[in-house]
Amino acid sequence: MRLILVLNGYENNYLQVHGFSKEDTKILKFDEKKLAAPSEIIKMINNNSVSEFYVASRELGLQRFKTFIKLYILLSKAKSGGIIDEYGNKDRYSLSKLIVNELPMLFIEILVSVLVVVYSYIKFPLMKWILKKKI
Amino acid sequence: MDTQKENLKIMFWRTDYYGAITEGGVASLHLGLINGFRKMGHSCSYVSSGRMILPNDVNYHFIPHNKLLRNFPEIINLPYNNSSFKALAKIIDKEKPDFILQHNHDFNYGGALLKKKIGLPLLLHCDGVEYWIKKNWGKLYFGKLLKWAEEMQWDAADAIFVPSQNVKKQMVELGVDSEKIVVNPNAVDPDNFSPEIDGTKIKAKYNLKNRFVCGFVGTFGRWHGVDYLAESVKWLKNNIPNAFVLFVGDGELRPKIEEILDKYDPTREYSLVTGLVPYKEVPEYMAACDVLLTPCIGNDEGTDFFNSPIKLFEYMAMEKPVIATNIGQQGEIFRDRDNGILIDERSPEQIYESIKLLYEDSELAKSIAKNARIEVLQKYDWRVNCQRFLDAYNKTKNQ
Known about the structure:
Number of helices of chain B: 15
Oligomer: heterodimer
Shape of chain A: elongated
Strand order of the largest sheet of chain A: 2-1-3-4-5
Helix content of chain B: 40-55%
Structural class of chain B: alpha/beta
Strand content of chain B: 5-15%
Shape of chain B: globular
Radius of gyration of chain A: 19 Å
Order of helices and strands of chain A: EHEHEHEEH
Largest sheet of chain A: 5 strands, mixed
Number of strands of chain B: 13
Strand content of chain A: 15-25%
Number of strands of chain A: 5
């Protein structure tokens, strides 16, 4: 069975554009914020005996949390899937791509994020002081 | 309505990461204001980090967020302060707007930066106090950064626009100068939402001819109270045989709504959830209804309801009788049995009783619907809303 979590856009568009049949597809409307709950999603995939898992969003290029979505596929019983959009684009899950490319990028993102946060804790109060002084 | 003699150039600035979502409350607000300003003879441009469906004469500028930081929602906003400011400064240099209308978003102090470096008047729209919203309704990370950013924006803005008195109250308690805050409730375009719109096509589509249709239109968010409307089906189906409850929209509460309906109306003879419908078709869906409902509920932690639901004004503009819960701005706008029916929140029984009242008393239904439309034309047209921005701009210019 195929499970599609629709974050935004129209359910039927995704079926049509990607050539999925209604019979073997379960579609659920899903709040993007809940993508941050791995156990809930993995449980959902495993409990529904899902072999293909997709997250559907209007435009692939503007979708966040792609690496996490692929990690959910890796950690669940789903064998394939990815992120799809209304224009027919698909960012397919691939174990090799995840290990070689996406996970190292996520690691870099974590490092950069730490630096950004530290820098912001210095910069924000400084900016606050400067702005208050001059406005 | 417009007292402005010159034609102004207004630049909208949206800084949140909203991906490809082109519909919803923020989009309706921005489009309503843009069309309001255009109707008043002013021109607009729009700067944001996502897609937006805009009228052809509105210049659109895309300033993307950092491509690397896509997995941690709070972090992505931090470097956007500088990168978006730099990009926007170039756009401003080219477009030369008269003022910036920024929709405030968490961790953003770009407006304050702009005000300091370029000196353009900054009119700031705030839906609420972001720090409070995150702390009470979401997850609060980097609370100090969020608080500092909001304070910088509030300090720098020439005027702050909030949707309700309750948000103003909250801000004043946090030390914002009350003179600076303008309460600007949401509004509607009364040409797009009007009693002239025909709902026959929708009635035919869902086989609703000869049914007394009670509708809810919007996102099924936690404060919309749609689940209480679903509960009312229990009484409606037994006491008003041709009643039908039409839920137009989608959202996080949809599974709960479907579960309640499965219990009381498993064959969906008396109710239906349509799912998401294109925004341009929404007036037709409203036109297909005999009664429209906004059963919003207060905040769980007991604080005042501070939202200004756009649907409220859309309902009123359609000249349909509206049933609303007596909370926050709904309680300020509606006068019971005059321009609406007011009920207690979280009461499916009162929802049912008020629907029955309007079903049995068609004269009352007609009169409250007419009064609501009159009130919208006088007070809640987007142009009235735009005028408040222009007044604030003029005040800034004359200082």
